[in-house]
Write a structure and sequence with these properties.
Blueprint (H helix, E strand, L loop, with lengths): L25 H11 L8 H14 L3 E5 L2 H11 L7 E5 L4 H9 L3 E5 L10 H7 L4 E7 L8 H11 L3 E4 L7 E2 L2 E2 L6 E5 L12 E5 L2 H10 L8 H7 L17 H11 L2 H19 L5 E3 L6 E2 L5 E5 L1 H4 L3 H10 L15 H7 L7 H9 E4 L7 H14 L4
Parallel strand pairs: 2-3, 2-4, 4-5, 5-8
Antiparallel strand pairs: 1-9, 6-7, 6-11, 8-9, 10-12, 12-13
Helix pairs in contact: 1-9, 2-9, 3-4, 3-7, 10-15, 12-15
The structure holds pyridoxal-5'-phosphate.
Length: about 400
C-alpha cells in the first residue's frame, strides 16, 4: 500500500524525517474554518458530534471530549473514584502523564513491570500488586498494541475495581475484532499531533457506563452539571457546581478537525501497519536489531515502531545509533524513561532502580523509529540503510 496522495497533504514534511507527524488535508481546513464562522466556538454542537462519531466508530456508548489525553486520564481517575491514599496500578513503561493523573487525585501509583518482548503490562505482576487499597488498574497500549485485556479484565473484576485503558497510542487497534475503546471500562485517547488522529491538543474518554460519562462531563466543566449551551437553550442562568472539576473543555474548532480526521483513521492505521511490516522484514536480516513482538490476533495500531538494540550483536549501543541517525537527518526517539526513575517520583515516592527491572533494562536498548501515514517506502528504506550502516564493522 502506498501513502496517501500528496494533494491531500498541503504541507509535506520538510527537513529531517520526524519520528511522527500529523497529516492535515484541505477537507480538515475547510471543516475548521466552517466552525470558526458559526455560533459556537466551544461547548457547541460540533463537540457532541465528535464524541458521538468517535464513540460509534470504536463501538462504545459514550464519548466525553476533553482538552488533552492527560485530562482524559485525570477524568477517568475521578470517574473511577480514586481518592487520596488510594492505590492505582500502572505500568512502569509509559509516559509520565499516566501516573501523574493518579497523583492529581491524591492517589499513589503502584508501578508494575512489563513483558520483555512487548513492553506491555504483565498481568501476573498486576495480580501480585493488588492490595485492599487498590482502586483501579491502568493498562497502557504501548506503541499502539492492545494489552492482554482478557487477563486484565478478569483480574480487575475479581478485585472489584475498574480497568482503565491508556489508549493514547492505540486508536485504530483491535484484539480479535474487538476495537480499542471496548476492551476496558474506561478508555482514554489523546489527539496530540503525533498520535493516531489529531485535534492539535485534545483527548476523549469512551465508556459504556452512562453514570461515569455524566460525571466526567461535569468534571471537565468545573464540576457544573449544565453547560453554557444547555442553559442558553433552556433560557436559564442558574447552575450548580456539584463536584470539584476543572476547565478541561475541548473547543468546537478542535472537534471539527477531529471529525474530519476520523474519516482517514482506518487508511492511516493500514499504512502504519504496512510501514511496520516493511521494517520488520528488513530487520530480520540485521543482527542485533529486534522489533517488539506482536501478540497473536491483535491489530497493532503502530503509533510507534520500537526496536531493541542488542549492543553485543549489533556492536554499538542505542545512544550511538541514535546519534548516527541524527547525523543522517533521521529523528529517532526514546519512549520512555520508566516513570519511577524520574527525579520527581524518586523524591516524592522514594522509587528507584530495581523496582521494575524489565522496563529499566529495556530503556537502555529501545529506539522509536519514524512512522506516520505520509512516510514513503523509500523513507523506510533510508532509515533501514542507515541502521545497517551504523553497525560496527559495516
Ligand atoms: C500522549 C500520551 C498521554 C498524554 O496525552 P496528551 O494529549 O499529550 O496530554 C498519556 N499517555 C500516553 C501513553 C501518551 O502517549
Amino acid at each position: 500500500m502506498s501513502p496517501p496522495s500528496p494533494e491531500t497533504a498541503p504541507a509535506a514534511a520538510k527537513g529531517p524525517l520526524p519520528y511522527g507527524r500529523q497529516e492535515i488535508s484541505k477537507a480538515d481546513i475547510t471543516a475548521v474554518v466552517d466552525v470558526l464562522t458559526s455560533d459556537w466556538l466551544t461547548t457547541g454542537p460540533t463537540v457532541v458530534r465528535f464524541e458521538q462519531k468517535l464513540a460509534q466508530q470504536v463501538g462504545a456508548r459514550e464519548g466525553v471530549a476533553v482538552c488533552n489525553g492527560t485530562a482524559a486520564l485525570h477524568a477517568a481517575m475521578d470517574a473511577a473514584r480514586v481518592r487520596p491514599a488510594d492505590e492505582v496500578v500502572v505500568p512502569a513503561m509509559t509516559f509520565a502523564a499516566t501516573a501523574n493523573a493518579v497523583l492529581y487525585q491524591g492517589g499513589r501509583p503502584v508501578f508494575v513491570d512489563v513483558d520483555p518482548d512487548t513492553l506491555l503490562i504483565d498481568p501476573e505482576a498486576v495480580a501480585r500488586s493488588l492490595t485492599s487499597r487498590t482502586k483501579a488498574i491502568v493498562a497502557v497500549d504501548y506503541a499502539g498494541q492492545p494489552c492482554d485485556y482478557e487477563a486484565l479484565r478478569s483480574i480487575a473484576s475479581d478485585h472489584g475495581v475498574p480497568l482503565i485503558a491508556d489508549a493514547c497510542h492505540s486508536l485504530g487497534g483491535s484484539d480479535r475484532g474487538r476495537k480499542v475503546g471496548t476492551l476496558a471500562d474506561l478508555t482514554a485517547f489523546s489527539f496530540h499531533p503525533v498520535k493516531p488522529i489529531t485535534t492539535g491538543e485534545g483527548g476523549m474518554v469512551v465508556t459504556d457506563d452512562a453514570v461515569m460519562a455524566t460525571r466526567m462531563r461535569a468534571f471537565r466543566n468545573h464540576g457544573i452539571t449544565s453547560d453554557h449551551r444547555q442553559r442558553t437553550e433552556n433560557g436559564t442562568f442558574r447552575y450548580a457546581m456539584e463536584l470539584l472539576g476543572y476547565n478541561y473543555r475541548l473547543t468546537d474548532l478542535q472537534s471539527a478537525l477531529g471529525i474530519s480526521q476520523l474519516d482517514r483513521l482506518d487508511a492511516w492505521t493500514e499504512r502504519r501497519r504496512a510501514i511496520a511490516e516493511r521494517y520488520r522484514e528488513a530487520f530480520a536480516q540485521v543482527k542485533g536489531i529486534k522489533m517488539l513482538t506482536e501478540r497473536p490476533d491483535v491489530q497493532h495500531a503502530y503509533h510507534l515502531v520500537v526496536i531493541q538494540v542488542d549492543v553485543e550483536e549489533y556492536g554499538v549501543d542505542r545512544d550511538a545509533l541514535h546519534a548516527t541517525l541524527r547525523q543522517a537527518g533521521i529523528s529517532a526517539n526514546v519512549h520512555y524513561l520508566p516513570v519511577h526513575l524520574h527525579p520527581y517520583y524518586r523524591e516524592q515516592l522514594g522509587t528507584g532502580p530495581g523496582l521494575c527491572p524489565v522496563a529499566e533494562a529495556a530503556y537502555e536498548r529501545i529506539l522509536s523509529l519514524p512512522v506516520y501515514p505520509a512516510m514513503t517506502d523509500a523513507d523506510v528504506d533510508r532509515v533501514v540503510l542507515h541502521i545497517r550502516k551504523g553497525m560496527r564493522g559495516a
